Amino acid sequence: MIYEGEYKGEGLKIGIVVSRFNDLLTKELLDSALDCFKRHGVEDIDIFKVPGAFEIPFIAKELAKKGNYDAILALGAVVKGETYHFELVANEVAKGVAHINLTYETPVIFGVITVDDEIQGLDRAGIKSNKGFEYALATLEMANLKKKLK
Ligand SMILES: O=c1[nH]c(NC[C@H](O)[C@H](O)[C@H](O)CO)c([N+](=O)[O-])c(=O)[nH]1
Question: What is the helix, strand, coil percentage profile of the chain, to 5?
Fold first, then answer.
């Protein structure tokens, strides 16, 4: 028997946690994710804005703890700078989101792009493709797959 989640959004409640740091990129990721959700029938979406990607896991954890979202999408953009901050932030956000997935019952999709520079970021946030749409599809798939495991 093969189980996989459909891209069906009707009746789903979705939470989005999006960081404002590098919002030239993150607002494009958010717009494309919202476009995807709406075109797949999602009508119940809550959006939570945080200062930077490092703050994403805290809010995503709080939402997962509430247990009333079918899935949570974490959106952010970590751009390599001159300092080592990039690695610290990127690693901790990934670890934090992974931990929430293994601790609570709500799928949390890691939609944080990590790029060397803004151009690479723009390539992934609208020029060549928009990862926001892809991450939203993954969110729909995981929300529907989880329903099948009940
Ligand atoms: O979302 C990001 N936050 C970044 N830093 C801020 C961090 O997420 C926290 O908001 C901040 O450290 C306060 O906790 C970034 N860099 O510094 O490179 C970055 O590229 N992206």
Answer: 50, 20, 25
Spatial distance between the Cα atoms of 29 and 136, rounded to a whole number of angstroms: 10
* Per-position b or e across 105-143, b if 16+ CB within 10 A of its CB: ebbbbbbbbbbeeeebbbbbbbeeebbbbbbbbbbbbbb
Nearest-atom index, ligand 1, CA of 76: 1
pLDDT of residue 83: 76
Residue 84 has pLDDT above 90, yes or no: no
Q: Which of 54, 55, 84 to mutate to test the pocket of ligand 1 (most atoms within 8 A of CB)?
A: 54
Mean pLDDT (the chain) is 96
Q: Label the pairing between strands 71-79 and 108-115.
A: parallel
Q: Which amino acid is at 131?
A: K
Structure-block tokens of residue 110? 């890691």
Other beta carbons within 10 angstroms of residue 144's beta carbon come to 19
Query: pTM for the complete prediction?
Result: 0.97
